Amino acid sequence: MYRMLRQDVGYVNILFDIFFRLLKNLCPSSEDGGTDGEARALKRFARTSHLTASAEEYIPGLALCAVAVAATTASATFLPLSPLVLAMTVGILIASVRPLPHSTRPGLAFSRGTLLKVAVALLGARLAFVDLLRLTDPLAFGCVILITLLTFAGTLWIAARLGISAPLGILVAAGYAICGASAVAAFHPISRGGEGDAAKAIGLVTLFGTAALVSFPVAATIFDMNDAQFGYWAGAGIHDVAQVVATASTRGDEAVDIATAIKLVRVAMLGPLLLAVTSYERRSRRQSTSASRPPLVPWFVAAFLVASLLRSVGLLPQSSITAAAVVADVLLASAMFAFGSGTSLSALRGLLGRPLVLGLTSWILISTASGVLAVSLN
Between vectors from CA 186 to CA 184 and to CA 190, what angle results, nearest 5°? Predict the structure, then answer.
């Protein structure tokens, strides 16, 4: 656990650098008549602790992320895409035109590492399990959980049959089954996937989520669904939260209310499935002597569950919930830009072929299962 925290929590690097500078100024050198034993010992510790990045190294990359987040958040107000997708798209386009300077790498790595995990932890403050039980029919609640698990497991099975890498399969399964780009970001730290895997998964989520915006209303008319049925279908079958709301809004307030509640049930599965995948990763590395096993419960997953519990029992004030949501959105968008900046358009050519087949097959799976649920409930 200590090694994991030392590696993952990047802000310790900054604090140590400041601490080192202060102690260096306090310890007189031999030229000033003092002993330099303390300074030499501190330098030896710095060399062996792997905490070598200075605070200044993070500034260029973090400043670039801040500009990108501000621009994409503003653009999302009049574009039919979420800030997360826009942020990753901007990063990919920039990386395709011209590689970013080396000076931005520490800050970008910090954003897609530590800041991403902090964002995942803050997502827990959005969930109140008591409200989910109150807003949804018990039968619908159970059926949506089953569909979520079916989609997650089915996507993993399809990915394996297609010969797609396990990290990409996990990210696509999370994005389709839970909550789109946010789920892809949450699962990336434990999937052992690369930046290109995250970009491909979000590309598939965006592509077929956009297809649902067009196809679901048309199909609902063909099958003569009422507003409530359409709300159940949209909430259980569409990936991203924003896409769910946009699609359900074509049928009015009742459809939006039902779709939002059903979608929150799927979002609530983020924590349990994170724990399940972490447990699987530990077992898969048990026989390996070279690979380090992940912690039983990653700190950001534990923080997610604690935040959700505090929200559920009413210990979080509304101001804290609102602040956590805003900070989580900003950090997630920053991480998505950082992922995109490490991926070029040429790398996304790998979407054609087997990954596209995976995306289409999984979309048909969740759309069909959720459609059957919607028709059966009303």
Answer: 100
The position carrying tokens 């490490």 is 342
Instruction: Compute CA 290 distance to the chain's CA centroid, rounded to the nearest angstrom.
Output: 28
pTM (whole model) above 0.85: no
> Running DSSP on this structure, what letter comes out for residue 103?
G
Question: Which residue in this structure is represented by tokens 């062996």?
Answer: 48
Contacts of 237 (CB under 8 A, 6+ apart): 212, 216, 366, 367, 369, 370, 371
- Tokens coding 243: 């896409």
Q: 288 pLDDT exceeds 80?
A: no
- Distance, in Å, from the CA atom of 269 to the CA atom of 282, rounded to the nearest integer, reads 20
Kindly report the number of other CB atoms within 10 A of residue 73's CB atom: 16
The pLDDT score that the predictor gives to residue 11 is 43
Query: Can you tell me whether residue 82 is helix, strand or coil?
Result: coil
Q: What is the C-alpha separation between 317 and 74, in angstroms, rounded?
A: 28
Q: Which two tokens stand for residue 126?
A: 């959005």
Contact between 61 and 110 (Cβ < 8 Å):
yes
**Do 204 and 175 contact (CB within 8 A), yes or no?**
yes
CA angle (269, 121, 268) in 5-degree steps? 15
Q: Are 250 and 241 in contact (CB under 8 A)?
A: no
Higher pLDDT, 59 or 137: 59
What the block records as the tokens of 308 is: 């959700």
pLDDT for the residue numbered 3: 46
Average pLDDT rounded to a whole number, residues 226-230? 91
Q: What is the pLDDT at residue 27?
A: 39
Q: What is the pLDDT of residues 265-285, one digit of tens each?
A: 898 888 889 888 888 877 776
